[in-house]
Amino acid sequence: MSLARAESRRLFKRRFTKLLMVGVLLILAAVAAGTYLSNQKVSAGQIAEAKAEANRDYQAGLVSAEQEKQKCLAAEGTPEIQNWGGSCENIYTPSPEDYDYVWYMPASFELRQEFPDMISVFAVVLAAAAFLIGASFVGSEWNSGGMMNLLLWRPQRLRVLGTKMAVFLGWLTGVSLLLAAVWTGVFQLIAQFRGTTDRMTSGVWQSFGLMGLRGLALIVVAGALGFAMASLGRHTGMALGALIGIGAVQIGVYVMAQLAGAKYPDVFLAPLWLFAWLYKEFVVEDYTSCDYSSTGGCELDQFTMTWQVAGTGTAVLVVLVVGAAMWTMRSRDIT
Amino acid sequence: MTAVLEISGLRKTYRGRKGVRNALDGFDMVVEAGQVHGFLGPNGSGKTTTLRTLLGLIKPNEGRMSILGREVPKHLPEVAREVGAIVESPQFFGNFTAETTLSLLADAGGVNRNRVYSVLDLVGLRDRSKERVKTYSLGMKQRLAVASALLKEPKLLILDEPANGLDPGGIREMRTLMRDLSAAGMTVLLSSHILGEIQLICDSVTIISAGKRVTSGSVAEVLARHKSGAVKVRLEPGVDMMGAAQILRAAGAAVTLDTDHFTVGNASNPAQITKLLAQQEIYVTELTPVAADLEDVFLELTGTAPVEGQNRQVDETAMSAAGKGGWGQ
Ligand SMILES: Nc1ncnc2c1ncn2[C@@H]1O[C@H](COP(=O)(O)OP(=O)(O)O)[C@@H](O)[C@H]1O
Ligand SMILES: [Mg+2]
Questions:
Q1: Is the Cβ pair B52, A334 closer than 8 Å?
Q2: Angstrom distances, CA of residue A159 to CA of A3, A151, B104, B148
Q3: Domains of chain B, earliest start first
Q4: Contact A151 B91 (CB under 8 A)
């Protein structure tokens, strides 16, 4: 227990921790302020007007499409038909969905529609900070010789490293939850004053909650990876180096997969995993394929990466890296 | 007397790119309770490696160790509370103040935080304790390291070259501090290569060379066991010293001339000197063995005395040098 208390104190006494926490708060505040300023409340009159305007444009679109069709039909049998690709069937007829009335209004913040993106922003910003704080928390300790000193006091290596990591991840979770609550409150206020909280059923809240939990998992995983990699390399820089290395290898693998003619080279890109994890799925398409059907035209082959796949893959990675960090802690010579 | 620290047959090999290095090669050591024990050895002889192994920082290949009667590293977690140690140059996280550094250690080790101020006072850092360690000089960091070792009120204090970076005043303070601690019942193990220091404050010593113990015992015992072998020779006034020296040199003695006497450096049998000189009708008025100091013993045992015209490399020691014999046997 005394070890955990010491590590808690150490974590918050570090300037790097404080600095990054302030940075995170500033970024989040900027995002919230930006959202607040760039949206506004729209009245029922404004909505009706926007709907009318959208409808006007839709009708105009229909008219011009009809005119185009007439011209095309007139040109049938002459070489000019080539202007329409040889057939009048391809002329596009607009549908009402192409004229969403929302575009005819000033921007307005609809909580149901836009909060998921805000959860993502929150999770990614906090995950980046967690990685850096975790890496530096243990990395500078190794680097400065503080870890050796600590081991002279508590010659229980796994316990020392494990406590350090648990304390860090515990605080990370607590602070994230607290900030997430504030974040949700702030955006609910923004929606009230600069948009709408319409259609917010309990099902929607539940789905936000689940997405939030996946975001929290992302933050904790980033923290654990940063911590474990810095401990493995006994230097904060090693975690950053490893991150850059992994990025480079990824791009390499992506390019190789493309050259080798893999069907979905995109699945090798971590940001897509991230997307799949947060938004439950990510669909990659094979642009070279064409499954022709008379109704839908060309249908591309698709591969859907689900959050379960992305999550399992990441979990395996975390177990491997953290396991390696613990294993080397147990067995290595500390000189 | 009981042994506070016992090491036997300790072996540690480092595997590097250039093959295997035996840092410790069957090393033994015993430290009795209540003593200030000097741990002497040239650079790279294995002092720090021994202390690291003892404190569980590195794993030995072979050997048994015990601290306060309990086998380590098995029981290290229990005995760690009784052992204060600094190993090699002091290292701390530079952005914390001395006070923060020590209070975090106190917390981690379950020691009352109030002790922080008394140990900082003890090592003379009280007035600078709120400054970041990064801004400290080497000697100040060394003092902080000693403070951290004292924080636990240990029964056994292990200091690896604590005089490193200290000013003369600091060295003297450290000496007094160690005397006081030892008087208060603490056992102190002090690694050093500053021999004057050790001779002044240590009750007993262990000398290590190339990973092996070459001698150990109380300072007096060690000195007595390793008489320098040099004798001071004084002749009747007016007698030709040069001539006498020639005679002895011709017989293989290492003679160093002085103004009114000369010294034979390798006289394992001083009777030979009187005999040789008497044969030439030169009579000796004084023939006294030169008392060895710890430095002589150290240089002799470790074979690290400088030889004119040669640059000794760090790993060249008594172990690697050719056997030396005395003259006059
Ligand atoms: N981490 C290491 N890797 C390889 N060799 C080492 C390591 N640490 C020490 N050694 C070697 O072990 C020998 C003993 O070193 P050390 O115990 O530090 O000597 P000292 O008596 O000066 O404290 C030296 O030859 C040194 O080069
Ligand atoms: Mg050393």
A1: yes
A2: 9, 10, 17, 21
A3: 3-225 (3.40.50.300), 226-329 (3.30.70.980)
A4: no
